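Fold this complex.
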Amino acid sequence: MTQATAKLIDGNALSAKLRTDVAQRVTALKAKGVTPGLAVILVGENAASQVYVRNKVKSCAEVGMHSVLERYDASMTEADLLARVDALNHDASIHGILVQLPLPAHIDANKVIEFISPAKDVDGFHIASAGALMVGQPGFWPCTPYGCMKMLESIGYALRGKHAVVIGRSNIVGKPMAMMLLQQSATVTICHSATPDLKAHTLQADVIVAAVGKRNVLTADMVKPGAVVLDVGMNRNDEGKLCGDVDFDGVSRVAGYITPVPGGVGPMTITMLLVNTLESAERAAGEAPTA
Ligand code: NAP
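Structure:
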């Protein structure tokens, strides 16, 4: 059997490096009297969401940031949630507001996201953030695709003139990912569930980002030798273990670089949330250009 040729892009190691830099900048900002603060709102009892918000709050503490976790019953009204967001918009100790999705069905998630002040939209989901990314203006980038860009940067990958294929077109991963790659002058193809022949596209790709949420969407026969493969997917295999969208063992024998699941894009997402919150606080302290 062919040996794995792909080099691993280690999201844990890169995160640790970036978080060390964040912690130093937090210390410097605190010395000037500003402590970066993140507010996380969780409505309801979604088990996965509870793990995510705990990790986000814990990560803030590890880099010296202030954070508040507001937990509400699933019966919370939309009006009450909007009132909480409004209060946090006006709270000077808070530089980033994150409303954990999904929200209960009776609450309009888009309305809530649009209610967050664009200056505190550290998730990068507000239309103002999406618009800024679209037209190449400064603004908050959604954390998961931003983390993918940092992974490419970490291997010194020059995207200019390369062909990138993004599988998935969600507002939080696929679309912003495509915009970021385009901004770096890659030629970008976006594939989705109505793409008739996915393999025909992926075989042309120098970079593939899989953001679907289905196991084995990308297999070895679909990858050009030497390609860079970033796996955003989070799924469970037959043994109940976390796995991505990519057939890791097979694709590792063809690709040039690959991200593992777990330990790849996942940790980078929280890291970029910390970066966005820090930069928001730096802006509030007049230390960085306005978003
Ligand atoms: P999503 O909103 O469900 O979007 C999935 C996308 O995949 C859709 O655009 C869909 O196409 C497309 N798709 C579905 N089946 C396909 C197929 N057979 N071939 C090609 N495209 C297909 O999911 P998401 O929020 O973007 O998340 C994607 C995955 O990333 C999930 O596993 C999620 O858990 C994971 N994720 C991980 C992180 C992290 O930190 N690691 C963060 C966010 C998300 P249509 O638009 O046509 O339906």
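Residues 11-31 form the longest helix (21 residues).
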